[in-house]
Amino acid sequence: MTGPTRTDVTQLLLRYREAARHLWNCFLREPETFAAATLAGDDARDDWEELKQVLFRAIVLRNTGSADHAAARLRWLTPIDFLHVTLRVEVPAMVSRKKDQGSYWDHPVDRLDPDDDLRFIDFYDFDESRHRDFQYCQAEIRNSQQHPEVIGHIALVEVQYVNVVVEDPASP
């Protein structure tokens, strides 16, 4: 029996990020929200949620090496189990105050390291009323040797610090 197979899909996620940013900023964001810095209307946000799913499936999921992955969906604060966020070094992070919540990012733990087990949720920006950059990778903390108190919390890590891999179980 061999160990798990890891496939780096970081470039696929970055392509999705760029396509999503461009679609929102250039085509879906309503012109009247630009000057007022207001949130888009419900119709635009509903269209956005549908388009994100299609983009994510077309750019990322169909290229992960498994047909089973195509059923995954981007959902609010729901990690995609097979997309492991890996860190190259210890990095700054914002961790949610409470488990399974993403509204306050002020937990005292403010650094994560390569040994932490993180699962991809989506890209994230604080301000949804302006151009989106998806500056952060949003991930659930599944395990942390150094900080077990943050297991189950949501973390924001700048995209520049992360890689994302698909980890398939050990093969015979």
Walk me through what this model shows:
The chain is α+β, with helices and mostly antiparallel strands. The protein has one domain (5-168). The protein has helices at 10-28, 32-36, 42-59, and strands at 5-8, 83-87, 91-92, 94-95, 111-112, 117-124, 136-143, 154-158, 162-168. The strands form two sheets. The chain has a seven-stranded antiparallel beta sheet with strand order 1-9-2-6-7-8-4, with helices on one face. It has a two-stranded antiparallel sheet with strand order 3-5. The model has no long low-confidence stretch (mean pLDDT 86).
Distance between the termini: 4 Å
Sequence stretches where pLDDT stays below 50 over 5 or more residues: none
Count up the domains.
1
Give the proportion of residues in helices: 10-25%
**Total strand segments:** 9
Return the structural class.
alpha+beta
Give a quick rundown of the structure:
With 172 residues, the protein is α+β, with helices and mostly antiparallel strands. Helices cover 24% and strands 25% of the residues.
Keyword list:
two-stranded antiparallel sheet, alpha+beta, 172 residues
Fold blueprint:
Elements: E1 5-8, H1 10-28, H2 32-36, H3 42-59, E2 83-87, E3 91-92, E4 94-95, E5 111-112, E6 117-124, E7 136-143, E8 154-158, E9 162-168
Antiparallel strand pairs: 1-9, 2-6, 2-9, 3-5, 4-8, 6-7, 7-8
Helix pairs in contact: 1-3
